[in-house]
Amino acid sequence: MSDSKPLTACKSGTTGIIEARTGKAFALKKGQSLKLINTHGAQVIDFFAFALDMDLRPLPPPTMHFLSMQHTRSGNLRLSPRSGSKLFSNLRKPMFNIDEDTSPGVHDTLVPACDPERYRQLGVQGHHDSCAENLQIALVEYGYSFPKDFTLAPLNLWMNVPVKEDGALAFVEPVSREGDYVVLKAEENCLAVCSACPQDITPVNGYSQKPRECNFEIL
């Protein structure tokens, strides 16, 4: 991440909306929690995070680290984290703890963030919003950026990607319900980014294929 200006941490008690098809970044201090609410019940949120130092500045290499799904799977010995699971960085450091999850606990750690090429392959002509672009836009709003050709693998909250007996994957409707929420407690200072996934071609956001907004609260 570029720049080294300190960020301003979100104030506890802050509430708001992650608008449909857009992203939003949150600077969190260790011990703060981000509550993400599936307001309408079938919306996927792509969740990314980057570690910050004690002054809420990005960490330089080689100490820089970010949320990593492969390390999270290894650290929990599970394909999908659940209430009580920790979310680990690429340096195997715990970045978040899932303090609460009122949903059935179906989330995805296998599928990459949607990006412009994904929509081109799905037959879209012209621009289509994507989680990869939402990540970049949200970072820029905080004064930071990551190489555009490098997108972290997100934790896809509420995304339902069942693994069949033969190892095949499928995209099916989320099993989360209206008002379900997760509470992610920061285990270190970090910049979290959430994208209300704009996927409207596959049933990732429900069979209505209509991306919706989600609510959040800083605890």
Describe the protein in words:
The protein is α+β, with helices and mostly antiparallel strands and about 220 residues long. About 10% of the residues lie in helices and about 25% in strands. The chain is built from 3 helices and 10 strands, in the order E-E-E-E-H-E-E-H-H-E-E-E-E. The strands form 2 sheets. It has a 6-stranded antiparallel beta sheet with strand order 1-10-3-8-6-5. The chain has a 4-stranded antiparallel beta sheet with strand order 2-9-4-7, covered by helices on one side. The longest helix is centred in the middle third of the chain and has 11 residues.
Keywords, please?
alpha+beta, six-stranded antiparallel sheet, about 10% helix, 10 strands, about 220 residues, 3 helices
Q: Give the averaged pLDDT, no decimals.
A: 94
Percent helix range? 10-25%
Describe the biggest sheet? 6 strands, antiparallel
Number of strands: 10
Our Rg estimate from Cα atoms comes to 16 Å
So how many helices?
3
Structural class: alpha+beta
Write the layout of secondary structure elements.
Layout: E1 15-18, E2 23-28, E3 33-38, E4 45-51, H1 69-76, E5 86-88, E6 94-101, H2 116-121, H3 131-141, E7 155-157, E8 180-186, E9 190-196, E10 214-218
Antiparallel strand pairs: 1-10, 2-9, 3-8, 3-10, 4-7, 4-9, 5-6, 6-8
Summarize the structure.
This protein is of the alpha+beta class.
